[in-house]
Amino acid sequence: MISLPNRDFLEAKIEDFIISSEKVAHVQIGNSAEHALLVLTKTGYSAIPVLDLKYRFRGLINAQRITDAILGLDHIEYERLPDLKVEDIMETDMPLIRPDDRFQKALDLLIDQNFLCVVDDAGMFTGILTRRVMLKQLKKRLYQLHD
Ligand code: 2BA
Hints:
binds ligand 2BA; 147 residues; CBS domain; three-stranded mixed beta sheet; CBS domain-containing protein; CBS-domain; four-stranded mixed beta sheet; alpha/beta; CBS_CbpB; 6 helices
């Protein structure tokens, strides 16, 4: 029979496991789709947050949304990239999490999301919680059960 990690873990706050904002690749409102594509390509990440000048979270951008926005009838219209703004094509409908939320909530959400953006009460972007970090914590707890 498989033993599950005890509930203490699920009830712990996520705050200690956040990748802090200064380490997270992002783009800003007002940046062009060309700039966003450059950042996505250079960092290798499939999606990154969009922030405003005050570091408030505004949305997510990925290469698929950019390509989709410049898709013509029979070719990709790359010449439109400099004029297209990230705020016009970013995704805004995604679950967010707060620094004092619990692992249980993050675990449920990370089943469908690669990562979660962490936003405080004032809407400020605190960082991200990734699937990788969550899986590492789960693995640690599972192995501890057998020590
Ligand atoms: P993806 O870019 O699709 O990356 C999927 C997984 O591939 C990552 O899982 C990580 O294990 C690995 N990976 C991708 N690019 C990497 C890189 N440049 N350096 C090291 N490992 C890399 P997670 O670590 O769980 O990240 C989940 C998602 O969170 C990523 O999806 C990305 O969209 C975002 N992300 C992670 N760290 C980020 C950062 N520092 N800045 C911006 N976005 C980040």
